[in-house]
Design brief:
Shape: elongated
Order of helices and strands: HEEEEEEEEEEE
Strand order of the largest sheet: 2-1-7-4-3
Largest sheet: 5 strands, antiparallel
Distance between the termini: 49 Å
Number of strands: 11
Structural class: mainly beta
């Protein structure tokens, strides 16, 4: 009987939706498009893929804030398709750097490259992750930066220059103006 209660409680203990990375596939669907060539006036019929799922613009959004804790959402998208499969491996936090009263938090989206062909109806992946950070007492301005790892297209490998990721979003939170 005790074992049954323990097994019933186990799913609730392992559930941590706050820190979980959510990944959604950006889907497209094939469609016929008719257009007119402006030079010749000829009507051209062609096939193209029209997005079914909207791409999420990279952003950092504050969810909650109190005296010692900041909760925010990191969101964005990566492209994938054709002869390469790019997927989000994880979002890595690099140690916050503090300069006077400004604290910079750096998050890097690690992209895993899978050999093979992506499906014809997949254009990429949207990702969302909720993060929280304990604010030091002397930090009044917090800058959150979101980076993507750069991929070397010629060798299908990650670049050796891991210190130079691409900045895709940044947000400033100024707590000088907020009164408690």
């Amino acid at each position: 009987m005790k074992l049954l209660y323990i097994l019933m409680i186990f799913p609730f203990l392992s559930c941590s939706a706050q820190k979980k990375l959510q990944i959604e596939t950006i889907l497209t669907q094939p469609a016929r498009v008719t257009s007119q060539d402006p030079k010749t006036g000829r009507v051209i019929n062609r096939s193209t893929n029209i997005p079914k799922t909207k791409r999420i613009e990279p952003a950092i959004i504050m969810q909650a804030h109190n005296e010692d804790k900041l909760t925010f959402i990191l969101k964005g998208n990566i492209s994938s398709g054709g002869l390469s499969i790019n997927n989000v491996k994880k979002i890595r936090f690099e140690k916050g750097v503090q300069s006077r009263d400004t604290l910079t938090l750096k998050y890097i989206v690690e992209i895993k490259r899978i050999p093979g062909k992506e499906g014809a109806n997949v254009a990429g992946y949207n990702y969302t992750k909720e993060e929280s950070y304990k604010i030091p007492e002397n930090a009044k301005i917090i800058r959150v930066e979101l980076y993507h790892e750069r991929l070397d297209r010629s060798h299908d490998q990650h670049l050796d220059d891991k210190e130079n990721p691409k900045l895709v979003a940044q947000q400033f939170f100024d707590f000088n103006k907020i009164q408690y």
